[in-house]
Amino acid sequence: MDEMESPALSEEDLTPELCSEGENIEEEASGPEEFLHYMESSKEFRLEEDYKDLVHTSSRDATEGIEEEFESSGECLEEPTRQSNKKNMSYPDRVRILNLRRNLNQLDNLAKGKEMAIQKTREELDACHDRIETLTNQQRNVEREIENEKKSNNTAAVFRLQAMHQRLCAELGNEKDLESKIAAMLNGNVLEMWKVEIEQGNFSELRKQIKWDEEELDQQRQGQAEERLRKQKKKAWVLRHRWQATERKIEEAKEFNEQRFARALEDAQKNHEKAAKFLKESLGRIHERNASEEQKHREYLQRRMDTVLSLKQNIASNREHLRIVQALDKVNALEAQAQDEKVKEAIQAQGHNVTREIFLHKRDVELEHQKKEFMEQQKAKKIEIVARILKEEAQQEKVKKQSHPGILKGKEKLSDAIKWRLKTWRYIKETCYDSMASSTLKSWHPVSSTDSFDDGSILEASKAMVPLRKGKEEEEDESLAEPEFTGIWDQECDIFKVTDDRIDSKPLGASELEKEIFAPDVEKLHSGIIRKHRVCGREFKGCPFYSKPSLIHFKDFDIGKTYKKKMVLINAFYGINFCKLIGVNEHLKDFFTVHLDPPGPMSAGMSCEVGVTFKPLINEDLEGEVTFLSQIGSFSVPLKCSTKKCVLALDKELIDFGAHVVGETISRTITLTNSGALGTRFRLRKSADPDALHTAAARSSSERMVFTLIIERTGSDKGSNYSLGGSIADKESASLSHSEEIIQQSAPSEKLIPTYSNEQIHEMNSDVSVTEEKPPSSLDSIPLEYHSREESTEITLGKVTEGDIGPFSSIKLPIIFTPAVLGKAQSDFEITFDNPDCTPLHFSAVAVSVAVPVWIRNPDIDLKICMYDKLYQDCIVIQSRATSALRLQFDVCKELDNHMELLPKTGYIQAQSSFSVQLKFLPRQSLPEDAGKYFDEKTRVLEVPVTITVSEQRKQVQFTVHAIVTTSDLEINPTEVDFGYCSIFEAVQTTITLTNKSILPQEFGFVDLQEFVEVQPNDGFGVLLPLESLSLDVIFKPKKAKEYSFHLTCKTEINRQFKLSCKAIGVHPPLELSHSLVQFSATALNDVSSATLFIINSHVRLSRLNHLGPRIGAGEVAPVGPISFQFLVPEDAPITIMPCVGTVLPGKKCLLDVAFHPVLCDQLIRQEAIHLMCQAAEAKAQMEKRARELELQRKKEEVLAGKKDARRMTSMSFLSQPSKDKYAIKPFEPPSPEDISPNSEEYIAAHLSLVRSFNERFDRYVIPCLVASGVIDEKRGAENLHFSPYNTLYLELHCPSVAPVVVVTSNNGRTFFNFGDVAVGHRIKKEVKIQNISQEQLVLQYSLLDPFGPFLLANPICMLEEGESRDLVLTFCPEENKSFFETLELRSEKATLTLTLTGRGVIISIACSVEDVFDMGYVVSKETATNTFKIENTSTLPLKYNIVLESLSPNRDEDLQELPPFLISQGKTNLVGTQNYSGLSVFTVSPVEGIIGVGKFQEFTVTFSPDHESLYYSDCVQVLLFDKEVIRVIQLKGAARNHMMFVEGGEPLDVPIESLTVTTSVAEETAKAESDKATNSILVSLESVQSETFVIPAVRELKVGVIRTAQFASKKNVEFSWESLQILQLKGFTVDPVKGTVERGQTKAISVSWVPPAGSDPNQPVTGSAILTLKGDIKEIYNVYFMGRIVTKELPPN
Fold this sequence. Notes:
With 1694 residues, the chain is α+β, with helices and mostly antiparallel strands. A hairpin with a 3-residue loop joins strand 9 (622-630) and strand 10 (634-642). The longest helix is centred in the first third of the chain and has 147 residues, at 204-350.
C-alpha cells in the first residue's frame, strides 16, 4: 500500500489548478478566434470610403450598448461560477485518484492472472493424476501377465514383460515427481492468490473512496462543461446583436448608395448626350486608321509569303548542293589521308622521327591558334577601353551642357580630360599594334590610319560615337545633378570669350571715328548683349555673311607643299555691315594663314575676297573654322583638310558562270577600282571564314542603321552651332567619315557584337528585312547553307592573285571554273589590302556542272571480300543520253591482266540506251606481287581503275573495281600437346588457340575423335569470326595405364584440314576417392556446409597375369600393403578436411569429412576499411571546403555591402585568395592495411559493409592428395614416406557462397557476446538486434541452450519480415564461480547465424573500515558534524552500490504503527532512534550510489545534523549491491546537547524512544538550563566479585567531555568538581579525580571504584550519592547515584 501511495505523495508538491488554468486559457483563446471570423465575414459588406467612418462609428456605438445591456445578465451568471470554482478538485487530487485507480487495476489484473495460473496448474495436476492412474493400471496388468507367463514357462515373454514393467515403474516415478512439483507450484500460487485477496480486502475502503472521488470528478467536469456552454451562449447572444446592428447600418448604407447611384446615372446621361456628337468624328478617324493598318498588314503578309517561297527554293537547291559537297568531302578526306601518308613517308625517308615531327607540327598549329586568340582578346580589350572612354566623354558632355548651356559646342577647345584620353588612345595603339604581326593587319583594322591624333579627330569621333548608345543607356547615364560651382577643369577655353587687354580690338585700317563707333559694339558683343537689328521694319535673322564656297576643303594634300584657295563673303544683311577677321582655331594656326583686306562698310549684297593658305606639316585629317566678326555678330566658315586615301570598290559582288559540261574550263573577270589618291597592295584569296559574306552583309546593314542614327543626332546637335545652311551638310559629311571608320573597326569585337549561328542570323536578317520594308538584295537571296560547308574546289583563282593598285586606277582579276562533279558549286573570295584603313572586300562565285553523254550508274564496283583461287563475276551497265550510237573500248591496267578481264573489250552503245559488260575476277596467289601499287598488303584492299574510251567525247569514263582479297588458313597454337602423366580417375585439360587468318567467318569442326579425348565447348564445332582467336579445351581421360599418342583433325567448310598431334601417359594410383567432385550447396557467410566421402584402398592382390593393377604407364605394379595419404589444403582456403592425414589398409576405406566455412578475406576487409576512411575524410574535407566557401562568400558580401571599414575594403583582394597558412588543408594519408587492428571500429564497420553488399560468389578449389606406400609414424609424421607426384589424387570442391539472410546490427556487427564478470546470483541482459536483409520473409528456429545453464533466450522471435529488425534479449545469471561458454544458432531455410555467448560468475566481497556501529559522538544541537568511513572492493568485478537509510525506508510508516521495542521484547532494539522535529534526516550519507572499481575503495561521508537535544539519535545504513543484495548493515549513533559539556557513562534511566511532539518551548528549556536548580541524575552500578580468599574491586568510568564548537566563544574550558564524597568513601566508593578542567574537543575519564567494606551483606546492595558540578557556558549539577553489589564466585579446583 505504501508503494502504491508513494507516487501520489511525491506529486502533491505540484502547482494546483494547472488544469483549470489551461481550460480558462483555451476558453479565452476561443473568443478572439470567433471574433476574427466574424470580422472577416463582415468584410464582404464594406461600402465606399466616404461612408466607412460612419458605419464604423455606428457599429461601435451599437456594440457598446449591447455590452452594457449584457452586463446585468452576466453578473447573475458569474455567481454560480464562483461557487463551483470553490468546490473544484485540485490537480494533485486528480493525479492521486488516477494513480490509485491505476494501482488498483494492476492489483485486479494480478489477481486475475493468479486465478488463471491456478486453474491451469490444477488442470495439469488432474492430467497428471490421470496418467498416474493409467500407468498404475498398466503396471497391474503387466504384473498379471508376468505371473501368467511364468506359469507357462515363457522366458522370452517374461523378460519382455519385465522390461516393460521396469519402464512403467520409471514412468510412474517420473509422473509422481511431476505431481509433487505441480502440487507445490499450485500451493505457491494459491498462497500468492490469498495474499492478493488480502490486499484487495485491505483496499476495499479505498475503493469506495476512489469511486466517490471519481463521481465527484465527473460532476466537476460536467459543471465545467455547463459553464463553457453558458459562456458560448453568452458570446453567441452578443454576436447576434452585433450582427443585427451591422445589418441595420448596411441597409442604411445601401439606401444612401442607391440615391447616389441615381444622381450619378443622371449625370452620366447628360455626359452621354454631350459626347454623342463627338463620337461620329472619332469613329470615322478610327475606321480610316484601321483601314490603313489593314492595308499595311496585307502588305506585310505578302512580303512574308515571298520570303517563305524564296526560302523554300533555297532549301531545294541546298539539298542538291549538300549531296555534291558530301561527295567532295569523301574525295578530300581520301586525298588528305594520302597526303598524310606521303608526309610520313617523306619524314621517314629523311630519317626523322615521324611521331615527333607530327607532334611538333600540331604544337605549332596550336601555338598559332593561341596567338590569334590572344590578339583577338587584345583587340577586344582595346575596343572596350575605347568604348568606355567615349562613354565617359559623352557623360562629361552632358554635364557641361547642363552646367554651361550658353557655351557654343562647335568652338570648344581641348580640355585636360580630352588630352589625357588622347594619351591613353595613343598608348593603346602602341601597345596593341606594335606586338602584332603583318598578318594581323590583314584581318584587323586600327582605330586610326595615322600614328597620331589631333584634337578635332577625337572630338568628332566622340561625337559620332555618342549616338551609338541605346536609349536605355542614355537614360541611365543621364544625370540631373548639377554642381554648385564649376571648377577650373570644367571651364573650356573659348577663343571668343578669352579677352586680353593687350589685343587691340580695332579693325584693320579703321579711322579714329570708326574706332569710337566700333568699340561699344565690340564691348556689347563680348558681354553677350546683342540687340535686334531692324531695317525698314524687318527684323534680320540668320548669318550676316554668306560664304562661297560654303566649305573650304583641301583634298589629297602632300606634306611640304603649299595650297591656296579663295572664297567670297557676301553681305546678307539688310543694311550696311562690317567684316573683321578673327582667325582660325588654335590647333590650326600652325598650318593655315588667312588673308583679308578690310573692305570697310559694305552695303547689302556687296562681297569681298578672303585668301586661305594651307601648308601641311603632318599627314592627318584636320577640321576647324575660320571665324569672322560683323556688326551684328560673329560667324564662321568651316575648314577641312583630307589626306590621301584608298577608296576601293568592286564592280559586282556575285559572279555567275552558268551551266557547263564536266571537263570544260571557263574564265570570268571582276574589276577592282581605286577611286582614291593613295595606292596600296592587294591580295586575292578564298575566304577562310565560310560566314564572311554573310557577316559582311549583316555588318553593312547594321552600319547603315547606325549611320542613320548618327546623321539624325549630329544634325540635331550641330544645327544650333552653324549659321550657314550650306556648311551644315558639309560638316556632317566630314564627321561621318571618321565615325564610320570607328564603327567598322569596332565591329569584329566579340564583346560588343555577339556571335550567332547561321540559322539565328538568317532569322534576324529576315526580321530586319520585314521591318525595314526593303526587298531582298542579291546577297540575301544566296542560300545560307553555302556558308556552312567547305568551299568548292572547282572554282579557282587565276594568275593574278596579288599586286599593286595605283591611285585612280582599276585592275581585272580572273576567276576560273573547271567542272568536275555534277551539281552546283559556290566559292567565297576575299580581297585584303596592306593599307590598314582599307577594309577587306568580299564577293562570291556560283556555277552549275552538267554531266557527260555516257556514264555509269555505279562508278564504284565493289566485289566485297574475295578469297584466293576463287572466281567472282559481276555485270557493269553503261548508260547513254546521246542522240546517236557511240563506240566504246574497255581497258584494264596491265598489272592485272592475269587476274581481271572485261568481256567484250569493244562495243557500240545505241542512242538513249544501255550496254552491259561482264567482269571476271580470279585472284591468284601472285596477286600481291603483280598488282603493285593497286594492292595494299596491310589492309588487303585492291583498287583497279578501268577506263572506257568513248568516241567523239574528250573525257574518258572511268570506274574503279574494289575488292578485299583474303586467305582461308586456320592456325592452331600450340602445334603439339603433351598431357604428361594422367590418373585414370582424373581428366587432364589443356587449352589450345584456334585462329582464323581470314577476314571472312569460317565454320570448323574436330572430327574422328577417339573415346578417351574430347574437345569443348560444343564438342569441337563452331564458327570463327574474321581474324578471331578461339580458345578450346582438349580433355584427356585415360581408361587404363599406358602410353598414348594420337592426332586431332580440324576441318573447315571448304574441306581444308588442319591436324594437332597429342601424347600422354596413363597412371593407375593405389588409392581412389569415392567422389572426386564435391558440390556444396549455397552457403552464407560465416555459415558451415559439410560433406562426407571415402578414400579407398582396393589393391588387395598382386597377380602377374593381371595388368590392371596400380602402376605408372607401362611400369611395374605397386606392392600390396597399407597406403598413406595426406591432403594439402591451402592456408587461405575456407576448407577443412578431417582427417587430412591417414593410412588405409588393403581392402579398407577411410571416412573423410569436408567442411566449407566461407568468410571474408582479411585483406579485403582492410582495403574496404581504408576506402571507408578515405570516403569519410573526403566528405569531411568537402564539408570544410563548403564551410570555407560560405564563410568567404559571407565576408565578401559584408565588404560589398559596406559593413566593413576602409581597411577591410583594401584587403578585399586578399579574401579571394585565402592564405595558405590559414586555409592549408593537409591531405589525408590513408594508413597501411597492416596498421588496421581487427578489433578496431574501422575494421568492424568495413566487415559489416562488405557483408551487406556481398554478392553471390563461386569458388573452385582443387585439393591435392599425396599418396605413398607405408604407415605414417605418429612422431615423425609423413617425413619417412616417399610420395610419388604421379600417384597424386585431386579432390575438386565447388563452393558457392551467398550473402547471409540475417545479420547482427548491434554490437558493431559482432556475433561474439561477452557478458563479462557477473556476481553470482545476479542477472544481466543484453539486447541483440538482428535484421532480415533478404528479399523474403524468414521463419527462424533456435538451437537448444543448456536448460540448467546460466544463459537464457528471453524472447525467441519466430518470424522476420523483409528488412525488419528485431531485438533478441539474452540473459546471463551464473550460479557458480566459474566461466561459461555456449552457442546459440538461429536457423532459417537458407542459412544459420551462430551467436557465441560467454560469461563468468564471480563471488563478490568487500572490506569496510567500520564494524556494525558508527558513533558520531556529541554535537551541539542545530550544528553539524561529519565523519567518514571507507568500503574497499576486494572482488574481481566493479561493484554498483546504493546506500539506503532505514529512516527513509518506504515501510517506515508501518513500523511506527507498532508498539515500541522496549514494550514488546527486551531483546529487540530499534535501529532508528530519535529524529529531528523539522522532519529532515538526522543522518545523511554521500554518495548514495556509484560504482567501485576492482581493487579500489570508496569513501563515504556521514553528516550528523540534530535540531534538538537528545542522547538517542540513531539510524541504520544498508549497503546494497546491484540493487539487490544487502552486503553490509551499519548502525549510526549520535548525541546532541544544547550546551558544550556532557557527562557520559552510567546506567540508562529512561527509554531510548522519545516523542516528536514538542512538549516544552525553547524559552522554557533555556530558562531551565540557566537556573542553578537544573539537575540531572546518573546511576552508576558496580559489581564486586568476592570469593573466600580474595575480593576483586568493581571499577567503572564516567567521562566528562567538552564539544568543540564555535558558539560559546567566551568559555574555552569546562571545570568539574565532586561534592559529598565523605559518606561515599565510608561505604567503599572512591572517585578519582575529584576536580579538574577539560579543554574543548577533549574528554576526561573519572574512575569510580568500589571495594565492599568488611561485613557487607552480599544480599543487600550498598548505595550512596554525590553531586557532580560542571561549569561551562552554564552550570550543570548532576546527582550521581552509586549502587554496589557483591557477586560471589566459586574458584576452580586448582
